[in-house]
Structures are given as C-alpha cells and as structure tokens.
Design brief:
single chain; about 150 residues; mainly alpha; PycTM_dom; membrane; transmembrane; cell membrane
Length: about 150
C-alpha cells in the first residue's frame, strides 16, 4: 500500500528519482573499469607464467582461471558498452532522430517518468552484469589459489 507524505510533491519525488537513477549508471561504469583493470593485471601475470614448465594440473587449472577471467572481462566490457537505443523518448538517441519542431513539442511533456524507467532499465542490466562479473572474478581467484597450491605440491 502506498502512502502519501504530507508536504512532499510528485515533482520533488520525480526529481529525486531522476537524480538517484542517473547516478547509478556511472557508478557501475566506475566499478566495471576497476574490475577490468584488476582482471587485466591478473591475466597478464598468468600469461607470463604460462610457459614456465608448470605441472600439468597447474596448467589445466591455470587455463580454467584464464577462461573464467576472460568471461568476467566480457561481462565487464558489456557493462561499459554504450547502449544507444532511443526508444524511451527521454534520451539523446531518441532526440537525435527528431526534427526541431518535434523536439520542441516533446519538451512540453514531462519526460521524467520515461527517463526514470529508461535509466532504471540500463542501471539494472549493468548491475546484473557487474554482479556476474564479480562472481566470475571470485571464482577465478579461487581457481588461481588451487593452481598455486598444485604448483607447490
């Protein structure tokens, strides 16, 4: 059940929602960039260790680690990949397809609900991919520990 808060207007809530949702997109991009850098460093280190005469078990587990980190990197790249569909009627890709008069007409309507919906969808997709990439990165680190342990045996 929704309750109405006295003194809080719909405009205030729409503005707050726009601000909140708009901040989520760059947050996920920043996190994805940091994880991409981390995964890149680990992949570079594994590449350097690949031809050093490691035991077969270590090599197999190391290969699984590289594949897992590669999958995480793909997800992270998808997080930062621009989505340029302009179907939400409140985004620059949509506006780019309009003529001047249609843009003026569209500016007379309150586009905040469409903007909130569109940005929420983008942010949700990015967060889901980021979560999967973190899970894969953690799995790769576990595999790396197993590879390291098998090299010591």
């Amino acid at each position: 059940m929704t309750t109405t808060v006295p003194g809080v207007s719909e405009d205030t809530n729409l503005d707050a929602a726009c601000t909140t949702v708009a901040a989520e997109v760059p947050r996920t991009d920043g996190k994805a960039s940091l994880l991409l850098a981390f995964n890149g460093v680990v992949l570079a280190g594994l590449t350097g260790a690949a031809n050093t005469g490691l035991p077969a078990v270590t090599t197999v587990v190391g290969a699984a680690t590289v594949l897992t980190l590669g999958a995480a990197a793909v997800l992270l790249l998808l997080v930062v990949r621009p989505r340029l569909q302009g179907t939400d009627r409140a985004s620059f890709p949509y506006w780019a397809s309009l003529d001047d008069d249609t843009i003026r007409t569209s500016m007379r309507a309150d586009a905040r609900p469409a903007r909130i919906r569109g940005l929420s969808g983008i942010a949700l997709r990015k967060h889901r991919q980021l979560k999967r990439a973190v899970d894969l990165s953690l799995a790769a680190l576990a595999l790396l520990l197993i590879a390291a342990a098998s090299a010591l045996i």
